[in-house]
């Protein structure tokens, strides 16, 4: 492969390289452990801060040693970078500010609540960070919020790095993004407040911060404004310009690199053109097609264009030769001035695991396809070196080319039978035999349920004993027979408990599952699992997403054994329990070579076979969980329809291979579904259960408004809390539902699975739930 090199007459200026942020957990989960020890009262603040500092310095060293020029500071966080910014700029609601706690504990109180020594504070709200699985803490704003520099974290972090010998580029969450992600505080006078209306009050404080950073020695500051990839940025165009003028004026020596990621700028590029910034970072992993426009916009300026060529969101090796061509094209378009091009990660590397060096179980072949944060740093450095002089990076480029070719060869031959099956999906494969009105009658007979039928969402307490048995089985300390015998006993106990509680549709309790996605990934062909590829979900909570590496298929039935055993123990209907295709995909690292649509349909076909097998085994109801369907929604509204089309089709593909008599349920939690109500209807499930106990009746109102046709079980108690609502409280909830929805369509169930509860808690909760349903049958039906 020939590398296009820029003209020999180009000035001898060199491009630079940067990473936008880095994972915080520590290679051996040091930070996670230190946080949990501190929260558990086992260590001191000093100890926690010491470990955090060690990790930061190790990170800087790593990035620098890998050959990356620009080291970011301020992206390390003890909980969340948005909360850090809220704290730094004093977006602290009164109840926390006046709690009497010290600064760090006030911070943690906002993050996770605080209940000690007479202080009782709830956590602030958490939301998903754009379309990632990372959650940030939602800033609360008030007309009376007094913006000021409340702490000097950005400066401290910069100086700490400087002292250790690194001249870093401090990173701040941008003021527009910070406010746009916020919400009005609890005070009634703020009810109508648009947080962005406070921008001109906040901007001078950012200016002050930049001036202080300049004083400390910062030449560049990276300001993250991912809000610029959303439709709504349009409405802030004028405010954006005014705010950045204020900031730039306050710190004229500072060069601002404004960073956007996760999508393309589109018309918001016009906003950026008006800003007094020295550089723009764009995500060319997610949105390579925006490069032309960006280069055209800055062809005749002096801006540095930061090319996000190495994915911060996925774990695949970068195709360096393709990336290099893009970078060379950019240099050419910017007048051959290489110093105007920076090679960077597409976003912060926060959303990737730390290093493949910690993976001891994956085959060398598979491992060679991957690149985690550390390996990505090396890729960035290689690209920058190659851009200066391709021959200087020849070995690294050749090795990369070999890996990429091996991966491509593998992809081509992955599984032709699966590809063909997906290509031949017919419209009739996406539809149940009869409409719900007909199925309803058949199922009535088949299931013989009372009005207000009661059920649960699937999991029962995952006790210490269950986890111990699983660990012993994984370590080969017990045989498969012993482990399975244990699971059978557990299922038997769960069935007996439900019979005693007098629930109507039973579940087997999911004791065999470590996790609702991992469990299926392990039984399907096409996934691999890591030992240490932890990715932050929120705070100290990390997940290890499975990786889709090849075409997905089901070598053998996955759940039939457990569900049919459970059904054999009872005359009541036993609900089979599957995780839906969209959720499995959204909670995994997807492949990059074929579309998510195709991957989702491959998974759907495997699940379709499972549903058919469950029916053959005598199971009369199957629940296909799709809690992650909402979070896959694209960032730009114009892309929603395309996503929802294949998401809905995938669900229908999974669930329409069975007869009309099969009761297909689905379940949704974690987010507000009112936005995608139409698609929920299109799933054509016979019953859906939704998280509801904390959401007032507005969600039900939405169901009523669209005339939801099927059965629905809005959760009557919060499964995240040990609290046991009284029978009367639950009757109140059922009554409120019955006012909005037809009585014969209502099911009674909790918000979600009970795996995090104790047996004592959930027995008390379910006792009241069943009693409430029984009473409603008499008084309401
Ligand atoms: C996050 S949704 C969880 C559904 C699953 N069936 C459970 O009960 O745990
Ligand atoms: Zn749930």
TrEMBL record:
Positions that bind L-methionine: 457-459, 510, 625
One annotated GO molecular function: zinc ion binding
Pfam families assigned to the protein according to its UniProt record, in alphabetical order: Meth_synt_1, Meth_synt_2
Cofactor: how and how many bound: Binds 2 Zn(2+) ions per subunit.
Pathways involved: Amino-acid biosynthesis; L-methionine biosynthesis via de novo pathway; L-methionine from L-homocysteine (MetE route): step 1/1
GO biological process assignments: methionine biosynthetic process; methylation
Keywords: Amino-acid biosynthesis, Metal-binding, Methionine biosynthesis, Methyltransferase, Transferase, Zinc
EC assignment: 2.1.1.14
Binding positions for Zn(2+) per the UniProt entry: 667, 669, 691, 752
Family recorded in the similarity comment: Belongs to the vitamin-B12 independent methionine synthase family.
Name by which UniProt lists this protein: 5-methyltetrahydropteroyltriglutamate--homocysteine S-methyltransferase
